[in-house]
Design goal:
Shape: globular
Distance between the termini: 108 Å
Helix content: 25-40%
Strand content: 25-35%
CATH superfamily of the largest domain: Vaccinia Virus protein VP39
Number of domains: 2
Radius of gyration: 26 Å
Strand order of the largest sheet: 5-4-3-6-7-11-10
Structural class: alpha/beta
CATH architecture of the largest domain: 3-Layer(aba) Sandwich
Number of strands: 11
Length: 242
């Protein structure tokens, strides 16, 4: 009889120990597999950047200053995706007209611009956004706008995706006014190569020297190359006059 009670007691202790252990183990597992915080978070489903993303806002301000975006500029931004980057630039600029260009414009709609982005970023800057925006569907060969129609062409973190970068630079020259600027934000490498180092897809990257030489040979003057964080550069070119 005593042995029987001992067996019951041991079994009771083991069952309770297991019941206590399982929730702890599950909780520990959830902690280990929680997604690490992103560099920035989007607000709800509107895909707009929060005013708390100080790092992204400072980065946008730095780019605007380095790119010398000025009042009344007309700019085509290649690879705009959902327009957040251009709206961040709008925190620090006024009366600029942006052509938001991409080969896939499904994330860019008139409703998104007028009903989501303009109210949100106006609230962030505490004064109405005065820049204007037009959606342009482009291709890997054509920007979709007229000759000599913009003062600046911006290619921000998109150059490595071009199937033929020479064609795209020629397009930039076509749409730029005389003395207009081609501004490119891109990573550089120690040698020309395809790599996933900076992008989930394999992108085509160049050395800084080859990058500059290729564009200069297509009718541009290299004014400045700004060193950004790490291997990132801001290239500032001016179209040669005819």
């Amino acid at each position: 009889m005593i042995l029987k009670y001992k067996i019951y007691i041991i079994a009771y202790v083991w069952i309770n120990a297991i019941l206590l252990y399982l929730p702890q183990k599950q909780c520990h597992s959830q902690e280990n597999h929680t997604r690490p915080p992103r560099k920035y978070e989007y607000i709800k489903n509107n895909m707009v950047i929060s005013s708390e993303n100080i790092e992204e806002i400072k980065k946008a301000q730095n780019f605007v200053e380095k790119s010398k975006i000025e009042k009344y500029d007309t700019i085509i931004s290649i690879g705009s995706w959902n327009g957040n980057r251009e709206f961040l630039w709008s925190l620090f600029t006024d009366s600029v007209h942006f052509y938001l260009q991409d080969v896939d414009i499904s994330s860019l709609t008139k409703f998104r611009i007028e009903e989501v982005c303009i109210p949100h970023y106006s609230k962030m800057r505490q004064t109405p956004v005065t820049n204007t925006f037009a959606i342009i569907k482009g291709t890997q060969k054509h920007f979709g706008i007229n000759d000599n129609s913009v003062s600046k062409v911006i290619m921000y973190n998109v150059y490595h995706h071009f199937k033929n970068d020479i064609i795209m630079v020629k397009e930039a020259k076509r749409v730029l006014q005389n003395n207009g600027n081609l501004i490119i934000w891109e990573n550089v490498t120690e040698r020309n190569m395809k790599t996933r180092r900076y992008c989930g897809d394999k992108g085509k990257y160049k050395t800084q020297e080859n990058f500059v030489n290729d564009i200069v040979n297509l009718g541009f003057i290299c004014d400045t190359v700004y060193k950004d964080i790490g291997d990132r550069r801001i290239f500032f070119f001016t179209k040669k006059t005819n």
